[in-house]
Design goal:
With about 300 residues, the chain is of the alpha/beta class. The protein has a domain at about 5-205: Alpha-Beta Complex (Spore Coat Polysaccharide Biosynthesis Protein SpsA, Chain A). It has helices at about 25-30, 50-60, 75-85, 105-110, 130, 155-160, 175-185, 205-225, 235-240, 245-265, 290, and strands at about 5, 10-15, 35, 40-45, 65-70, 90-95, 100, 115-125, 140, 145, 150-155, 190-200.
């Protein structure tokens, strides 16, 4: 567990990684100095570089802090595995290409409560022309549900009750989970002092590639939750496109949306939970906290 314990509930920090040797060391070092009690649960999706080796070296240097699991599949699959293995009452999600401010976990711990969702502030680092673009927000009952899962904390019991991440999503699985949480009566508390730094895509092609699949995921949301256009603040969205790169991102996202429309016939997402085995058996059933901790 965390070496400096200030009391309070145990938080399990869950991260899913694939081929993150360039960033993983910095993430793990940033977590090593967080305020305890906490643990780190890392799920590797069949990395082909030194990702697992770096994680194992860190685990040896910090006994009892990091547990490593290997499971192929989507980000939703990996995060569900991480929560399945988590021992904490709360689960904090962070991505492998991020690193946390030294006060990140302590700030989040001060904000959590039973049945809660807490979102921190994510700062992009890298080429400024890519990092200055704002998130495309989506609202339900006046609540922004697009806070990303690279800086998000869920009460584990609430996560279990919601059924976890839907592994059928290519992207936007975090928005889907947040939508279901708010629809179930939960609120999302934004705590800007809980800062995570996220590495931006390092070239224009990868930047557009990410935007394309984000658009694809937004179309999956409409399949599962119905028409979402009325929940976007369209005027604010359009007014935020202030430079050619912003318009390029929006165009790539729209292309991904249309691509899903064209190729998605016959495999639309239903509004229910995926059936058992619907992800090829990669997604475990998310247990109740007490059941997960049985020996």
């Amino acid at each position: 567990m965390g070496s400096e314990s200030a009391g309070g509930p145990l938080i399990s920090v869950v991260t899913t990684v694939r081929n993150e040797e360039a960033h993983l060391g910095r993430l793990l070092e940033s977590l090593a100095h967080q305020e305890g009690p906490f643990e780190v649960v890392l799920v590797d999706a069949e990395s082909r570089d030194r990702t697992v080796e770096i994680a194992e070296e860190f685990a040896r240097a910090h006994p009892g802090l990091l547990r490593i699991f290997r499971r192929p599949g989507s980000r939703g699959v990996g995060r569900n595995v991480g929560v399945w293995e988590a021992r904490g009452d709360y689960v904090a999600f962070i991505d492998g290409d991020c690193f946390a401010d030294s006060g990140w976990l302590g700030t989040l711990r001060a904000a959590v409560a039973p049945g809660s969702v807490v979102a921190g502030h994510t700062v992009t680092v890298g080429k400024p022309k890519y990092g200055q673009l704002e998130r495309v927000e989506l609202y339900l009952n006046g609540v922004d549900v697009t806070f990303p899962s690279c800086n998000l904390v869920y009460d584990r019991a609430l996560f279990v009750r919601l059924g976890g991440f839907d592994p059928r999503f290519i992207t936007a699985e975090d928005i889907d989970l947040n939508l279901r949480a708010v629809d179930a009566g939960a609120s999302i508390r934004y705590v800007p002092a809980a800062v995570v730094y996220h590495h931006m895509r390092d070239n224009f092609v990868r930047f557009l590639y990410q935007a394309f699949w984000n658009g694809y995921g937004r179309k999956q949301l409409t399949e599962k939750h119905g028409n979402q256009w009325g929940r976007y603040r369209v005027r604010r969205l359009l007014s935020g496109q202030k430079n050619p790169i912003a318009w390029a991102r929006l165009s790539a996202a729209f292309a991904g949306y249309v691509f899903r429309v064209v190729i998605g016939e016959g495999r639309r997402l239903s509004d229910g939970r995926p059936t058992a085995g619907g992800d090829g058996g990669a997604r475990p059933r998310v247990s109740s906290p007490s059941e997960a901790r049985r020996p």
